[in-house]
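Suppose a colleague, Dr. K., hands you the sequence of a protein chain of 215 amino acids and asks what its three-dimensional shape might be. Before reaching for any lab equipment, you can write down a predicted structure in token form. Begin with the sequence itself:
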Amino acid sequence: MKKTLLTLAAVSAASILAAADKAPIELDYPAPFLSGTPVPIVLPNLESPDAPQPTVLAPAGVSNIAFGKEVTSSDDFPIIGELELVTDGDKESEEGYFVELAQGPQWVQIDLESTATIYGLGLWHFHTQKRAYVDVVVQLSDDESFESGVTTVFNNDHDNSLGFGAGRDMAYVETNKGKLIGAKETKARYVRLYSDGNTSNEMNHYVEVEVFGEY
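The predicted structure, expressed as tokens, is then:
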């Protein structure tokens, strides 16, 4: 019993020390900019607009390793913009700063070029109009085809429309603050993000995706 208590104490101390070496990830927000007529947002699993960003810890100095990395997609011919916009570091939301993919379930995928420990992600779909994106699923893997070794770190597909299982995460209203997602220190090379339209129209959009990790 005494040995067990000592072991638990050692594990607890190690956890405290590990947490002490980390700091919350802080996203850099673009300036707010809203235009157009708002459309009512009606979803059964919608998060309160006042909900704060989650606290996601990472070692001090961890940077966005997705910057400038190659982006591929289920839609080979975006309707607006180029896939490079997803990782170009620019988070403005007017036309010329985002990529628009066709209606229906679509994904974008970032190749980090080698396996990294991923602590968190920053995601901006679109923020010149308040809206919520549907069936947002974020997955990580070392398999480019995502057929094996897949870790799901976010899933607001409440009714399992995409077939990955019913998600417990909440849909959220898009703003210039984007969405911070914890990645559970998953080791992966590829990041894939799904969506299936939004509450304003059936199209899929991405302004920027940041991946905070280290090789």
